[in-house]
Amino acid sequence: MTSKADQRPRRLGRDFIARHGETVFNAAQRMQGDHPHTPLTRAGFAQADEMGRALRAELGPKPALTLWASPTGRALQTLAVIAEHLELDWHGAQTDQRLVEIGMGGWGGRYYADVIAEVGPVFDSASGLLISSPDGELYHQIATRVGGWLGDTDHDPGDRLVIMHGISSRVLRGVMTGADEITGFGAPALPGLPQGSVVKIEHGIESVVHLGTGHAPA
After folding, report:
1. Which DSSP letter does residue 181 get?
2. Which CATH superfamily is domain 21-210 in?
């Protein structure tokens, strides 16, 4: 039987997918969504340091690694720290809007507690996925955009590092590994990982490079 991952073009390189470090929104328990810039906290910078050390241990200094990031400030700040550990040029990184976090519409920027008081639970208990806001982005739309990025970049034969977000990285990882769609969400998604985590996906198979110390609501 052929899996969904087997149906994708086989990448020759490895993909290191990282979730950015903790931000001021994370610490205050506010919904970030696709906000363009929510700065890292001291804990977030420490998590980026941990990822940098783990990747250096895995890859060594100055690895042949293409750098990619969501264009958000928090992803680029995280990448700057990691790149320093790897002795790579942050200025050579590429960004793509399709790597941003789920769009939260009118819930964006609000405190979780306030939204929950109005509408009830905002996380699905079975999957841990954040429920889309009434005017927010749906999961099949996330899968389409991250899948589009993959389709445009799968020809790259080398290793690459991608810094992105909790929800959108779960969907990207699901697409890349051929995971089943999550019931009620219309898209694949792998389990959530704490902020500051890095996974490796090679030939459609995922392994954890570093498990972060951050909070993991998504």
Report:
1. B
2. Phosphoglycerate mutase-like (3.40.50.1240)
